[in-house]
Amino acid sequence: MGTEAVGTLAYDAPAAKVDRRRLIEQLGDAVRGLVAATCAAEAPPEELERAIAGTRQLAEGLRGFARPLGTASSSEDPLLPHLYPAGHGAGNPVAPPVHVEATEEGVRSRITLGRQYEGPRGRTHGGISALLLDEVLAYASTSAGRGGFTAYLNTSYHQAVPIQVPLEIRARIDAEDGRKTTVKGFIALESDPEVPLVSATALFVIPRADYEGNQK
Ligand SMILES: CCCCC/C=C\C/C=C\C/C=C\C/C=C\CCCC(=O)SCCNC(=O)CCNC(=O)[C@H](O)C(C)(C)COP(=O)(O)OP(=O)(O)OC[C@H]1O[C@@H](n2cnc3c(N)ncnc32)[C@H](O)[C@@H]1OP(=O)(O)O
């Protein structure tokens, strides 16, 4: 049996699944690195052509093993984070590498964004900031035993969020009302954690038991 930590939760998952998850995370990390390098590369044409051919070949190899859309990955475990969601999946190279920890007031995530998340030069794309906030605010709701789907996410952009600079994202529950949870949070520089660069308020709604999205 192998042990994998999820927040404060330590859980003995079957060793084969832990090993497989580790490989999936390593592949996600490797491809994330490729994506970041791709967005920064001022490479000569022959190097770009080599990268195109090699990448296409790798993609072709993996495509042969694709699971049908809507089916569970064999890496899934009810007590461990899914590896492929676009917001935080460690195995999803498009997902920013979000790791969340519990704090006294709520949750916190420390992250440094790579070149692939750049919008205006040197600044994080606003949609990526919104994705990070959606994710970390959702964790605050989930770790308080509430969860729910994002019904709205209101973001205010106060200052630029820099690329390749350590950031801190914090979130806390603001209000609970039946199936509704209001969560507040913000992105700041790790070196200046009290000054919000982007702040957000989100409403998470736990769907009714007969919600059609639950039938899938
Ligand atoms: C501690 C260890 C834990 C270990 C955990 C392990 C792993 C952790 C895994 C995951 C971590 C967690 C988080 C990260 C994951 C994901 C984050 C991203 C989340 C998303 O990315 S999620 C996708 C985008 N999201 C949608 O895809 C939603 C589409 N939508 C709907 O699915 C429905 O729309 C729904 C369900 C929202 C509501 O549907 P419904 O049928 O329940 O609605 P209903 O009318 O009954 O409203 C009920 C009450 O909400 C109020 N209300 C509703 N909507 C409102 C709005 N927009 N503004 C203001 N108020 C609103 C009403 O006014 C009423 O309020 P009242 O009761 O007071 O009248």
Automatic annotation (TrEMBL):
Where is this protein found? Cell projection, Ruffle membrane; Cytoplasm; Membrane
The Thioesterase domain sits at 122-184
Cited Pfam families: 4HBT
EC nos: 3.1.2.2
Lineage: superkingdom: Bacteria
Q: Does the keyword DNA repair apply?
A: no
UniProt xrefs under SUPFAM superfamilies: Thioesterase/thiol ester dehydrase-isomerase
Lyase as UniProt keyword: no
In terms of PANTHER family, this protein maps to: ACYL-COENZYME A THIOESTERASE THEM4 (PTHR12418)
What this protein is called in its record is Acyl-coenzyme A thioesterase THEM4
From which source organism is this entry? Arthrobacter hankyongi
Supply the source organism's classification: Bacteria, Bacillati, Actinomycetota, Actinomycetes, Micrococcales
